[in-house]
C-alpha cells in the first residue's frame, strides 16, 4: 500500500518537474523572440499585460504547440510512472495544467484565436497522453504489467 502511494506521488512530482522545465523553456523562447523593451520592469503586471498584447501571432502559434507538447509529455509521464499505469495520474496532471493555462489566459490579453486553439489542443493532449501512457487501446490489459516468460527451447 505504501509502495503504491509513493509510486503515485513520485509520478505526479516527476510530471510536475517536467511541466515546470517545459514552462521555463517556453519562457526562455519567448524572451529570445519577443524580449521586453529596455528599461521595462518585467515584474510589473501592467507592463506584462502591455507586453503580451504586442506578441506577434507567429510566436503565439508556436507557443500553442509547445504548451501542447508540455501537457502531452507531462500527462504521458504521470500515467506511465503511476501505479498500474492508471490514467488517473495523467488526468490529474492534465487538469492541473489546463487550469493553469486557463488562469493565464484569463489574466493576460491573448487574442481569441489563441485561447480557442489552446481550448481545442490541450484536452486532446491530455487524452492522448493518458492513452499512450497506459499502453494504448490495443493493449487488452493496460493497467496490468506484462508478464515476461523465458523463451521456449532456448539453450544457454
UniProtKB/TrEMBL annotation:
Q: Which domain of life is it from?
A: Bacteria
Transmembrane residues, as ranges?
58-78, 90-110
The alphabetized UniProt keywords are: Membrane, Transmembrane, Transmembrane helix
> What is the protein name given in its UniProt record?
Uncharacterized protein
Q: Which organism is it from?
A: Lignipirellula cremea
Q: Lineage, please?
A: Bacteria, Pseudomonadati, Planctomycetota, Planctomycetia, Pirellulales
Amino acid at each position: 500500500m505504501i509502495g503504491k502511494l509513493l509510486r503515485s506521488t513520485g509520478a505526479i512530482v516527476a510530471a510536475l518537474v517536467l511541466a515546470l522545465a517545459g514552462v521555463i523553456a517556453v519562457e526562455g523562447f519567448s524572451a529570445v523572440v519577443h524580449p521586453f523593451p529596455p528599461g521595462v520592469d518585467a515584474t510589473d503586471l501592467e507592463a506584462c499585460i502591455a507586453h503580451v498584447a504586442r506578441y506577434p501571432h507567429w510566436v503565439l502559434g508556436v507557443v500553442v504547440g509547445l504548451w501542447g507538447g508540455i501537457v502531452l509529455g507531462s500527462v504521458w509521464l504521470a500515467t506511465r510512472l503511476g501505479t498500474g499505469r492508471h490514467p488517473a495520474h495523467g488526468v490529474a496532471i492534465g487538469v492541473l495544467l489546463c487550469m493553469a493555462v486557463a488562469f493565464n489566459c484569463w489574466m493576460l490579453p491573448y487574442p481569441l484565436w489563441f485561447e480557442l486553439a489552446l481550448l481545442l489542443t490541450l484536452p486532446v493532449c491530455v487524452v492522448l497522453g493518458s492513452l499512450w501512457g497506459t499502453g494504448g487501446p490495443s493493449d487488452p490489459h493496460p493497467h496490468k504489467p506484462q508478464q515476461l516468460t523465458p523463451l521456449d527451447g532456448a539453450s544457454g
